[in-house]
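Interim report to the steering committee. The following record documents the input for Isoprenylcysteine carboxyl methyltransferase family protein (186 residues).
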Amino acid sequence: MIIVYLFIGLVVVQRLAEVGVAKSNERWMMERGAFEAGANHYPVMVALHVCFFLSLLVEVTIQQSEWTMWSMLPLVFFLIAQAIRVWALATLGRSWNTKIIVLPGAEPVNHGPYKWIRHPNYAVVVLEIFFLPLVFQAYVTAIVFSLLNVAMLSVRIKAEEEALNHVCGYQQTFKHVRRFISIRKK
């Protein structure tokens, strides 16, 4: 059981480190004239992610989850998602944030994974919220929070795309790139 808690703890520490990077990036962008959009849904998104980890911990504790051979398949998908996360965040650089922070006049990032899909980091979050619980057979958490995350992303992506389109021609830049499918539109 200890390895289960350690693994989940490492993921939580990773997320907290990302929040620190996001805060630094937010300050950097705001100093250059950026503004926040979609702030009204941000507390709900944070609550969703906090509740996800709490639910995961409760479910694995109740079940006394352990590593099994079955754990390897969802773990592989989770680790692939981590690699894509690093690629997406590195591609965005100082523009990456957990909030919707928009810098007027900045060009939309359309290279790296963004060349193929508009929202690779959100695709990663979808994979993580589904596969991390499956590593520990936490099926309720995987299903419930996957559904809640889809609802959240439907609000989040709309707000983000509207804000980006307003200041930097986002829709024109990405008119041939789908949101989550890695096939370019003609």
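The two ends are 50 Å apart (CA to CA). The committee is asked to note this result when reviewing the revised timeline.
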